[in-house]
């Protein structure tokens, strides 16, 4: 009898202590560390529980699709910026326009422009930038000094000149990937070209676009850049085989750990400019699902992770770059010269076109650029073929 | 002597296997044929009603798709080189292992069989290093003879040969064991009789071993043909279809269309075509086998 009472008592307690549960799906390293942020959030909101489900990057795309198809999606999810259009156009995300209007702390203006643009699909705001990633130029200060560019190349001419001189002295001048749109697109944007214009017309056969492809492929055709790296990037950078490359913030600490011998011999610089110095911006947004039953607390969580102090804590934990501008005013980032370069680059960064067909556009672009790099097609031919591919993809 | 109980027990024993086959093999095959007649893509995943029936449009598109032709060419290129190579080498090593004078038979059997059971991901990583143009074992070895080795997986002309090397090496073990079992089944007295008649070793091999191994060879060649037409893991791991799509196989292209772009209708049409190719070639092989007897 006593037992029954206890059970009833416990049951009634659980019903009374009515708490809401917020479910979040996150990927990779973020998923492992997100509970740190979630714990702080729970401290502020004791009646909310947060359930984080980790999904590996490799199967994230499939899992999201099946989640959407089977209505088993969470309240919030981490979403790679290049997936926004594909999932956004399915119409499963909540439009956050109203929430942004009514929010005291979060507005469009607190974020960098490039990252915020990735949240907009079909003129609707489908998420908030959570963290960002951009590419800058990594260079060996000592080697660049030997060809007269101690502070690194400023523009295209200097980049080519420095790389050519370095390849004559050593083995290569720089390394770039023939199949990586994150490295190809900045060159295209820097020349005021793009894959599509505002109206969605294909603009890959403009002289500016072809000039960018020509410039990019020239490095490979003249053997200034290797078509494929032999060893690991760290080793080749340390032994001077490749004195320059473009990459993201994670490379700073990894270089210092993997090759401590060059710890003071390298630096980062905003990308060399042509008409301007635009770089690629990627990263992840947080999105809310339309069918979520906890939209109020989901929005609360979104506001929470957009606070500068939370963004900074997140950067310290994971090393991914804050998307909120104010965070960069903090001395912790300001006094770190390499990191502040990334902050500068974010002011001039752009995301690829937000189209549901992006995965295919990317694939076609990379294939055609690679053909130009290997010299099996001229830049004009590659651009013409790319136009044909895109017409087929976007019909 | 059929009784009721025996029918029941037959159903009991075979039932689970047949049901599983139906659910996980036959049904998906039929489904994918139907999907290949629709434009099933990402949008249809969230809402099935968005998939439209488009008849044979996917197949017409496929016919004009240069990448599909390229992947087909690559797959057949691999098949035509790798298939005879696998059969001849497997038979060669099986005969060597089968000889009476061979020591450490089991050691060799295990050694050849290991690649077949090793994880492809691990193999690909190790081979990436073996094939590395500057630090690789293979080019170091060639360098000993003064040969300047190529950039194996970075050069469009050498990438496919590298893949072929890998798949043959991986497939050898299994086929050696099959041939070895076949050799064990050849009665010893045939060789003894031939020896009495003064047949040389080579003649014995050609006149006894090869004909007696015909059923084994048939089995091996059908299996190898089906396996190589479905070439996927090695190019996926080693080169991801590159450079310049020189190692893009049909299944890798199917995977890209299906699970990267989610054009499931289009990917299914590739699957249907591949199924037909394998089906026709296997039937041809069976016909060839029959005419030989």
Automatic annotation (TrEMBL), chain A:
GO molecular function, one term: maltose binding
Signal recorded as keyword: yes
SUPFAM superfamilies: Periplasmic binding protein-like II (SSF53850)
Pfam families: SBP_bac_1
Keywords: Signal, Transport
Top-level division of the source organism's lineage: Bacteria
One term under GO cellular component: ATP-binding cassette (ABC) transporter complex, substrate-binding subunit-containing
GO biological process: one example: maltodextrin transmembrane transport
Coiled coil among keywords: no
Family: Belongs to the bacterial solute-binding protein 1 family.
Protein's UniProt name: Carbohydrate ABC transporter substrate-binding protein (CUT1 family)
Taxonomic placement: Bacteria, Thermotogati, Thermotogota, Thermotogae, Petrotogales
UniProtKB/TrEMBL annotation, chain B:
Protein name in UniProt: Carbohydrate ABC transporter membrane protein 1 (CUT1 family)
Family indicated by similarity: Belongs to the binding-protein-dependent transport system permease family.
Cell compartments where the protein resides: Cell membrane
Organism listed in the record: Oceanotoga teriensis
Predominant cellular place of this UniProt entry's protein: membrane
UniProt-listed InterPro entries: ABC_transporter_permease, MetI-like, MetI-like_sf
Residues annotated as transmembrane: 12-35, 76-98, 110-130, 158-181, 212-231, 264-284
UniProt GO cellular component terms: plasma membrane
Keyword Transmembrane: yes
């Amino acid at each position: 009898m006593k037992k029954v009472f206890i059970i009833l008592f416990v049951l009634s307690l659980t019903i009374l202590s009515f708490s809401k549960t917020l479910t979040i799906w996150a990927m990779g390293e973020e998923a492992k560390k997100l509970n740190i942020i979630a714990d702080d959030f729970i401290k502020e909101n004791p009646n909310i529980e947060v359930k984080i489900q980790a999904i590996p990057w490799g199967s994230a795309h499939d899992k999201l699709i099946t989640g959407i198809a089977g209505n088993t999606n969470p309240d919030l999810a981490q979403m790679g910026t290049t997936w926004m259009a594909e999932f956004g156009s399915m119409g499963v995300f909540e439009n956050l326009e109203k929430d942004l209007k009514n929010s005291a702390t979060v507005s469009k203006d607190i974020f960098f422009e490039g990252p915020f643009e990735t949240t907009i699909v079909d003129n609707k705001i489908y998420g908030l930038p959570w963290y960002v990633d951009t590419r800058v130029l990594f260079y060996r200060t000592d080697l660049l000094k030997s060809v007269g560019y101690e502070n690194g190349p400023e523009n295209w001419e200097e980049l080519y000149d420095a790389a050519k001189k370095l390849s004559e002295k050593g083995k290569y001048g720089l390394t770039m990937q023939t199949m990586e749109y994150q490295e190809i697109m900045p060159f295209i944007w820097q020349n005021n070209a793009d894959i599509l214009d505002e109206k969605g017309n294909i603009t890959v056969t403009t002289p500016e676009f072809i000039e960018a492809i020509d410039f990019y492929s020239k490095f490979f055709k003249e053997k200034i850049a290797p078509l494929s790296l032999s060893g690991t990037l760290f080793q080749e950078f340390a032994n001077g085989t490749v004195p320059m490359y473009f990459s993201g913030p994670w490379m700073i600490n990894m270089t210092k750990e993997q090759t401590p011998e060059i710890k003071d011999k390298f630096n980062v610089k905003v990308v060399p400019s042509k008409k301007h110095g635009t770089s690629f911006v990627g990263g992840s947004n947080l999105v809310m699902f339309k069918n979520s039953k906890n939209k109020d607390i989901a929005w609360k969580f979104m506001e929470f992770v957009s606070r500068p102090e939370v963004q900074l804590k997140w950067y310290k934990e994971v090393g991914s770059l804050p998307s909120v501008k104010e965070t960069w005013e903090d001395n912790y980032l300001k006094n770190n010269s390499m990191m502040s370069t990334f902050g500068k680059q974010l002011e001039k960064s752009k995301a690829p076109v937000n189209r549901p067909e992006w995965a295919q556009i990317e694939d076609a672009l990379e294939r055609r650029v690679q053909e130009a790099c290997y010299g099996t097609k001229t830049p004009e031919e590659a651009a013409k073929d790319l136009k044909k591919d895109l017409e087929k993809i976007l019909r | 002597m059929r009784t009721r109980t025996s029918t029941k027990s037959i159903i009991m024993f075979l039932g689970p296997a047949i049901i599983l086959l139906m659910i996980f093999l036959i049904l998906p095959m039929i489904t994918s044929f139907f999907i290949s007649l629709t434009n099933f893509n990402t949008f249809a995943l969230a809402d099935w009603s968005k998939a439209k029936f488009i008849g044979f449009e996917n197949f017409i598109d496929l016919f004009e798709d240069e990448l599909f032709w390229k992947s087909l060419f690559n797959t057949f290129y691999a098949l035509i080189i790798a298939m005879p190579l696998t059969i001849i080498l497997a038979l060669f090593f099986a005969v060597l292992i089968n000889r009476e004078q061979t020591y450490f038979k089991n050691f060799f059997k295990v050694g050849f069989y290991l690649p077949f059971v090793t994880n492809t991901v691990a193999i690909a990583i190790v081979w990436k290093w073996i094939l590395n143009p500057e630090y690789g074992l293979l080019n170091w070895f060639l360098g000993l003879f003064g040969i300047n080795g190529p950039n194996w997986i970075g050069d469009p002309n050498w990438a496919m040969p590298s893949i072929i090397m890998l798949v043959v090496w991986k497939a050898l073990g299994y086929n050696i064991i099959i041939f070895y079992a076949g050799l064990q089944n050849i009665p010893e007295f045939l060789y003894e009789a031939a020896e009495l008649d003064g047949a040389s070793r080579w003649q014995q091999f050609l006149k006894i071993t090869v004909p007696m191994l015909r059923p084994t060879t048939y089995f091996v060649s059908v299996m190898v043909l089906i396996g190589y037409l479905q070439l996927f893991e090695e190019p996926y791991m080693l080169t991801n279809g590159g450079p310049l799509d020189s190692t893009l196989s049909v299944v890798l292209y199917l995977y890209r269309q299906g699970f990267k772009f989610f054009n499931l209708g289009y990917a299914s049409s590739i699957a249907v075509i591949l199924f037909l190719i394998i089906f026709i070639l296997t039937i041809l092989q069976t016909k060839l086998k029959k005419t030989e007897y």
